[in-house]
Automatic annotation (TrEMBL):
Belongs to the peptidase M14 family. Its cofactor is Zn(2+). GO terms for molecular function: metallocarboxypeptidase activity; zinc ion binding. This is Peptidase M14 domain-containing protein. Keywords: Hydrolase, Metal-binding, Metalloprotease, Protease, Signal, Zinc.
Length: 436
């Protein structure tokens, strides 16, 4: 996710030298709360999972779960502009690991990760969660008796496994080309604003852009509070003029559901109707405050969208009060779980205030589901695997606490004031190499 205000440039740095190099880190970090990245460091990403490795891992976990986990292909990434024209347009499978079914008598939680392909640790944390839920033990048993948990560990497989110049080169965006005439729109119709036409990413330390050359979308702007929105079902001339105007083709409105990835996740959401939806992201770097220079490992948010009026139908969407209350309780419990004295873990903040109805979290919150945004520190290309173990824990520990809280009902006792009191985002470090 990105901030509504672009005053501070987030360091979604993409290393020009993403490689398996094992370059020595010349200066081991000298502060207890890093790491910050020194100049000329190469980041080791070699231990990240390819799509094939992820599939193998999930299949093994299903086999060893004693029937607790059912692995399904929910859909496929999409290489065509308008859904699957042919089998050849199908890209990579998008998996959902299901613990329990959509039983309305159970609490239901949906977790997605890697909606942005360059946000790897979310997927790894998801695998850790799946592994633990697949194992035996009283804790897991009690959770799964009362809670159904569906996990989609990698919902942007194209970006996650992108290659550039023969090397693994993960990208934020999906792979897909805007060809408006193929979906009944005039050929000169302007693309949705979240289309990345040249296939490019911000370069390391925000110095220019690297063009990898495959166009695609920011999937996390392609959702719509109207979960059934499809361009082809609308008045096409109305859609064309909406897209052709800058006053409407922007982040204040829902997306166009042009990606198969967003459609797939939404179909899972509709089938499951979760009480809670969690989406795991990566962000930049910052410290707690001028006085407290602990590096913030994670930010949370219970709200990412304002009340919304569908510009095509006039239908109104808003987050119900009880839905917001549970969202705050989920986020508050997560923040509390990470408080361990004055440790790095506890240095959590709230994600900056945003209004993004085209995000998965925004669209689903406006459809009666309590949400939690988890934003892990650092982009994969900046941190590599450094601190990966700790950062995964900032996802898995809160989520297990939420599972337990939902299972025994204790989550409904959490004071929402705890959420309101989580410190606001601050002290962004725009360039991790300069430590300022
Ligand atoms: Zn993200």
């Amino acid at each position: 996710m990105e901030k509504k205000f672009s005053k501070v440039i987030l360091p979604t740095a993409l290393a020009l030298t993403v490689s398996v190099s094992s370059a020595a880190y010349a200066n081991p970090q000298s502060t207890p709360n890093g790491p910050y990245i020194e100049d000329n460091q190469n980041i080791s990403l070699s231990s990240y999972m390819s799509n094939a490795e992820l599939a193998t891992k999930l299949q093994k976990l299903e086999a060893s779960s004693n029937g607790k986990m059912k692995l399904e292909v929910a859909g496929y990434s999409n290489l065509a502009p308008d859904g699957y024209q042919t089998e050849a347009d199908k890209g990579e499978p998008i998996y959902v690991a299901k613990f329990g079914d959509n039983d309305p008598n159970k609490k239901r939680i949906l977790i997605t990760a890697q909606i942005h392909g360059n946000e790897q640790i979310g997927a790894e944390a998801a695998i850790d969660i799946i592994q633990k839920l697949s194992s035996n033990g009283k804790e897991v048993e009690e959770i799964l008796e009362n809670v159904s948990i569906w996990i989609m560990p990698r919902i942007n497989p194209e970006g996650a496994d992108n290659q550039y110049e023969g090397k693994w080169y993960p990208t934020r965006y999906t792979h897909q080309t805007w060809l408006p005439e193929n979906i009944g729109l005039p050929a000169d119709t302007v693309a949705p604003w979240y289309y990345n036409s040249d296939g490019s990413e911000r370069a390391q330390n925000n110095e220019g852009r690297v063009v990898y050359g495959i166009p695609g979308y920011d999937q996390n702007r392609d959702y719509n509070p109207n979960l059934d929105f499809r361009v082809e079902n609308q008045d096409l001339s109305e859609v064309a003029s909406f897209l052709n105007s800058q006053s409407t083709n922007n982040s204040k409105y829902g997306g166009f559901y042009v990606t198969a990835e967003a459609r797939t996740v939404t179909s899972v959401f509709k089938e499951f109707q979760p009480d809670v939806y969690v989406d795991v992201h990566h962000r930049g770097f910052n410290t707690v405050s001028d006085e407290d220079n602990r590096s913030v490992p994670v930010q949370f948010a219970a709200v990412v969208a304002d009340p919304y009026t569908d510009p095509f139908t006039g239908e109104q969407y808003e987050v119900d009060e009880d839905v917001l209350t549970l969202a705050k309780q989920v986020n508050a419990l997560s923040a509390l779980t990470l408080q361990k004295g004055q440790s790095h873990f506890g240095a959590v903040q709230k994600y900056p205030d945003v209004n993004l109805p085209g995000t998965a979290l925004g669209a689903f919150a406006l459809n009666d589901t309590s949400i939690m945004l988890i934003e892990i520190k650092g982009q994969s290309q900046t941190l590599g695997q450094k601190q990966a173990g700790m950062l995964k824990e900032t996802v898995t520990q809160p989520l297990f606490a939420v599972f337990q809280g939902l299972a025994d009902g204790s989550i409904y006792e959490v004071d929402t004031q705890v959420y309101d009191d989580i410190p606001e985002a601050s002290n962004s470090i725009s360039d991790p190499t300069s430590r300022n």
